[in-house]
Write a structure and sequence with these properties.
InterPro entries: ORF6C_dom, Phage_regulatory_Rha. The protein has 226 residues and is of the alpha+beta class. It is built from 9 helices and 4 strands.
């Protein structure tokens, strides 16, 4: 038997030629039935339904002549076949409707194949969305860099350099402050205590990397309070 339902542009459809062949009718009679249904739909204000469910096509006969035919969705077919009421016609209607159901189930299980226009539109949409997201991403990266820069503590080399400057400063000052009762141990305790307070850190190794140069300058200028 001729294939009752096919897929066109991702939609399950039959056509007037198939209906005519299966129901044993002349094609011009089926075309007349279709046009009669369209007239009734227009009178009912159902133009949108007609647009989505009845599609007029052109086909070439075996003799090379061109004629009109209609592609019909399941809803359009049901309206046209409504007047076909013989027992045999009822059997054919059931077969058509079952085939529509099968094809629709098959379509639902497949990813939709986009037309060229749909592919272009989807590509443009993705491009627009990407263009809109880029400034947001850039801002997020900038914010992350800022947080990273502000929160990052001294690396090992910087810790060693700062420790060396502290030791150097204590060694350079201890001779001047021993008369005031300062020992090296007290001097180290004072400079570390003052450094922690100045840079809001629990230990010199946790000084922020962005404050490294300032911390070095602070140590070089530090003097204990008498």
């Amino acid at each position: 038997m001729k294939k009752l339902v096919s897929i066109q542009n991702g939609q399950a459809v039959t056509d007037s030629l198939t209906v005519a062949e299966v129901f044993g009718k002349r094609h011009d009679s089926v075309m007349r039935d279709i046009r009669n249904q369209k007239v009734k739909l227009v009178e009912a204000g159902m133009d949108k339904f007609i647009f989505h469910n009845f599609v007029e096509r052109e086909y070439q006969s075996q003799q090379g002549n061109f004629y009109k035919k209609y592609e019909l969705t399941e809803d359009a077919f049901a309206l046209v076949a409504m007047s076909y009421v013989t027992p045999e016609a009822m059997k054919f209607k059931v077969e058509f409707l079952q085939e529509f159901k099968r094809i629709k189930a098959e379509l639902q299980g497949k990813p939709k194949i986009l037309t060229e226009r749909e592919q272009l539109m989807a590509s443009m949409k993705l491009s627009i969305e990407a263009a809109e997201e880029i400034p947001v991403i850039k801002k997020e990266v900038t914010d992350l860099k800022r947080v990273f820069s502000e929160e990052l503590t001294l690396n090992h080399g910087q810790q060693q350099s700062l420790h060396h400057e502290i030791k150097k400063r204590v060694e350079s000052l201890i001779g001047d402050y021993q008369e005031c009762g300062f020992t090296k141990q007290r001097m180290y305790s004072e400079i570390h205590k003052n450094l922690r307070r100045a840079f809001s850190t629990p230990k010199y190794i946790f000084v922020k990397r962005k404050d490294y140069q300032e911390a070095i300058a602070w140590v070089k200028a530090w003097r204990p309070l008498l």
